[in-house]
Design brief:
Layout: H1 2-6, H2 9-33, H3 40-60, H4 66-95, H5 110-122, E1 139-140, E2 143-144, H6 145-171
Antiparallel strand pairs: 1-2
Helix pairs in contact: 2-3, 2-6, 3-4, 3-5, 4-6
Length: 175
Protein backbone atom coordinates (compact mmCIF):
# COMPACT_ATOMS: atom_id res chain seq x y z
CA UNK A 1 0.00 0.00 0.00
CA UNK A 2 2.99 2.27 0.58
CA UNK A 3 3.77 2.32 -3.16
CA UNK A 4 0.33 3.78 -3.79
CA UNK A 5 1.13 6.78 -1.60
CA UNK A 6 4.34 7.46 -3.54
CA UNK A 7 2.69 7.11 -6.93
CA UNK A 8 3.24 10.24 -9.03
CA UNK A 9 0.46 11.47 -11.32
CA UNK A 10 2.57 10.81 -14.42
CA UNK A 11 3.23 7.23 -13.39
CA UNK A 12 -0.38 6.74 -12.31
CA UNK A 13 -1.75 7.94 -15.65
CA UNK A 14 0.82 5.81 -17.48
CA UNK A 15 -0.32 2.71 -15.54
CA UNK A 16 -3.97 3.53 -16.26
CA UNK A 17 -3.22 3.89 -19.96
CA UNK A 18 -1.29 0.63 -20.08
CA UNK A 19 -4.10 -1.06 -18.15
CA UNK A 20 -6.70 0.15 -20.63
CA UNK A 21 -4.60 -1.10 -23.56
CA UNK A 22 -4.14 -4.38 -21.67
CA UNK A 23 -7.91 -4.75 -21.56
CA UNK A 24 -8.06 -4.17 -25.33
CA UNK A 25 -5.45 -6.87 -25.92
CA UNK A 26 -7.26 -9.21 -23.52
CA UNK A 27 -10.54 -8.71 -25.40
CA UNK A 28 -8.86 -9.46 -28.72
CA UNK A 29 -7.18 -12.59 -27.38
CA UNK A 30 -10.38 -13.84 -25.76
CA UNK A 31 -12.33 -13.15 -28.96
CA UNK A 32 -9.85 -15.19 -30.95
CA UNK A 33 -9.33 -18.07 -28.50
CA UNK A 34 -12.98 -18.66 -27.70
CA UNK A 35 -14.44 -17.64 -31.08
CA UNK A 36 -16.53 -14.90 -29.52
CA UNK A 37 -18.64 -12.65 -31.74
CA UNK A 38 -18.34 -9.01 -30.65
CA UNK A 39 -21.40 -6.83 -31.09
CA UNK A 40 -21.44 -3.11 -31.96
CA UNK A 41 -21.55 -2.15 -28.28
CA UNK A 42 -18.57 -4.43 -27.55
CA UNK A 43 -16.60 -2.81 -30.36
CA UNK A 44 -17.58 0.67 -29.14
CA UNK A 45 -16.39 -0.18 -25.63
CA UNK A 46 -13.14 -1.46 -27.14
CA UNK A 47 -12.73 1.90 -28.92
CA UNK A 48 -13.37 3.75 -25.64
CA UNK A 49 -10.68 1.64 -23.89
CA UNK A 50 -8.30 2.58 -26.73
CA UNK A 51 -9.19 6.26 -26.41
CA UNK A 52 -8.83 6.13 -22.62
CA UNK A 53 -5.43 4.47 -22.95
CA UNK A 54 -4.25 6.91 -25.59
CA UNK A 55 -5.29 9.99 -23.59
CA UNK A 56 -3.83 8.60 -20.35
CA UNK A 57 -0.47 7.73 -21.92
CA UNK A 58 -0.32 11.01 -23.85
CA UNK A 59 -1.13 12.88 -20.64
CA UNK A 60 1.57 11.03 -18.75
CA UNK A 61 4.32 12.14 -21.15
CA UNK A 62 4.61 15.86 -20.28
CA UNK A 63 4.93 17.03 -16.71
CA UNK A 64 1.58 18.60 -15.91
CA UNK A 65 0.68 21.05 -13.17
CA UNK A 66 -1.79 19.99 -10.52
CA UNK A 67 -4.48 21.79 -12.53
CA UNK A 68 -3.38 19.96 -15.71
CA UNK A 69 -3.57 16.66 -13.84
CA UNK A 70 -7.08 17.54 -12.70
CA UNK A 71 -8.17 18.35 -16.26
CA UNK A 72 -6.62 15.11 -17.55
CA UNK A 73 -8.30 13.14 -14.77
CA UNK A 74 -11.69 14.65 -15.57
CA UNK A 75 -11.24 13.93 -19.31
CA UNK A 76 -10.38 10.32 -18.51
CA UNK A 77 -13.32 10.05 -16.12
CA UNK A 78 -15.68 11.31 -18.85
CA UNK A 79 -14.35 8.70 -21.30
CA UNK A 80 -14.76 6.05 -18.59
CA UNK A 81 -18.29 7.32 -17.91
CA UNK A 82 -19.15 6.84 -21.59
CA UNK A 83 -17.83 3.29 -21.43
CA UNK A 84 -19.62 2.65 -18.14
CA UNK A 85 -22.96 3.81 -19.57
CA UNK A 86 -22.45 1.74 -22.74
CA UNK A 87 -21.59 -1.36 -20.68
CA UNK A 88 -24.53 -0.69 -18.35
CA UNK A 89 -26.89 -0.46 -21.32
CA UNK A 90 -25.53 -3.70 -22.75
CA UNK A 91 -25.78 -5.37 -19.33
CA UNK A 92 -29.41 -4.27 -19.09
CA UNK A 93 -29.98 -5.54 -22.62
CA UNK A 94 -28.58 -8.93 -21.61
CA UNK A 95 -30.47 -9.14 -18.33
CA UNK A 96 -33.81 -7.78 -19.55
CA UNK A 97 -34.01 -7.85 -23.37
CA UNK A 98 -37.74 -7.05 -23.16
CA UNK A 99 -37.02 -3.58 -21.65
CA UNK A 100 -34.59 -2.18 -24.24
CA UNK A 101 -34.21 -2.12 -27.99
CA UNK A 102 -31.71 -4.65 -29.36
CA UNK A 103 -28.79 -3.45 -31.46
CA UNK A 104 -30.07 -3.58 -34.99
CA UNK A 105 -28.33 -4.12 -38.28
CA UNK A 106 -31.47 -3.10 -40.17
CA UNK A 107 -32.15 0.17 -38.31
CA UNK A 108 -28.76 1.17 -36.83
CA UNK A 109 -28.39 3.80 -34.14
CA UNK A 110 -25.44 6.20 -33.76
CA UNK A 111 -23.16 3.65 -32.09
CA UNK A 112 -23.88 1.01 -34.73
CA UNK A 113 -23.28 3.55 -37.52
CA UNK A 114 -20.01 4.66 -35.92
CA UNK A 115 -18.79 1.07 -35.57
CA UNK A 116 -19.82 0.29 -39.16
CA UNK A 117 -17.94 3.40 -40.33
CA UNK A 118 -14.82 2.28 -38.42
CA UNK A 119 -15.06 -1.21 -39.91
CA UNK A 120 -15.45 0.27 -43.38
CA UNK A 121 -12.54 2.70 -43.25
CA UNK A 122 -10.11 0.36 -41.48
CA UNK A 123 -11.12 -2.91 -43.17
CA UNK A 124 -10.06 -4.57 -39.92
CA UNK A 125 -11.64 -7.39 -37.96
CA UNK A 126 -10.81 -5.33 -34.87
CA UNK A 127 -13.86 -3.17 -35.57
CA UNK A 128 -16.07 -5.74 -37.34
CA UNK A 129 -19.22 -6.53 -35.34
CA UNK A 130 -20.44 -10.09 -35.82
CA UNK A 131 -22.55 -10.73 -32.73
CA UNK A 132 -25.75 -9.67 -31.02
CA UNK A 133 -25.68 -7.24 -28.11
CA UNK A 134 -28.03 -9.32 -25.95
CA UNK A 135 -25.90 -12.45 -26.33
CA UNK A 136 -23.84 -13.63 -23.35
CA UNK A 137 -21.20 -15.74 -25.04
CA UNK A 138 -18.68 -15.51 -22.19
CA UNK A 139 -19.49 -15.58 -18.48
CA UNK A 140 -16.97 -15.64 -15.62
CA UNK A 141 -18.00 -15.76 -11.95
CA UNK A 142 -21.59 -15.15 -13.02
CA UNK A 143 -20.78 -11.93 -14.87
CA UNK A 144 -20.86 -11.45 -18.63
CA UNK A 145 -18.14 -9.59 -20.50
CA UNK A 146 -20.39 -6.49 -20.52
CA UNK A 147 -20.70 -6.73 -16.72
CA UNK A 148 -16.92 -7.00 -16.35
CA UNK A 149 -16.46 -4.06 -18.70
CA UNK A 150 -18.82 -2.02 -16.52
CA UNK A 151 -16.66 -2.80 -13.47
CA UNK A 152 -13.44 -1.98 -15.37
CA UNK A 153 -14.71 1.37 -16.65
CA UNK A 154 -15.88 2.27 -13.15
CA UNK A 155 -12.47 1.38 -11.73
CA UNK A 156 -10.59 3.31 -14.43
CA UNK A 157 -12.74 6.41 -13.93
CA UNK A 158 -12.41 6.39 -10.15
CA UNK A 159 -8.65 5.80 -10.37
CA UNK A 160 -8.21 8.67 -12.85
CA UNK A 161 -10.09 11.08 -10.58
CA UNK A 162 -8.21 9.84 -7.52
CA UNK A 163 -4.83 10.43 -9.20
CA UNK A 164 -5.87 13.88 -10.41
CA UNK A 165 -7.33 15.17 -7.15
CA UNK A 166 -4.58 13.58 -5.05
CA UNK A 167 -2.10 15.67 -7.05
CA UNK A 168 -4.04 18.83 -6.19
CA UNK A 169 -4.28 17.91 -2.53
CA UNK A 170 -0.52 17.31 -2.33
CA UNK A 171 0.69 20.25 -4.43
CA UNK A 172 -2.11 22.80 -4.39
CA UNK A 173 -3.81 24.35 -7.39
CA UNK A 174 -0.87 26.46 -8.52
CA UNK A 175 1.74 23.69 -8.65
Amino acid sequence: MRWLIRLTPRLGFLWLGLGAWGLVVASLVMTEWWNLNPCPLCIFQRVLYMLFGLVAIAGALPRLSARGNKILGVKLALIALGGFLTAAYQSLMQARPDLVIECSYTNPGPIERFVDWLATITQSSLFMPTGLCSSQEWVFLGLSMANWSLVCFLGLGIAALWIAFRSIRRNGWAA
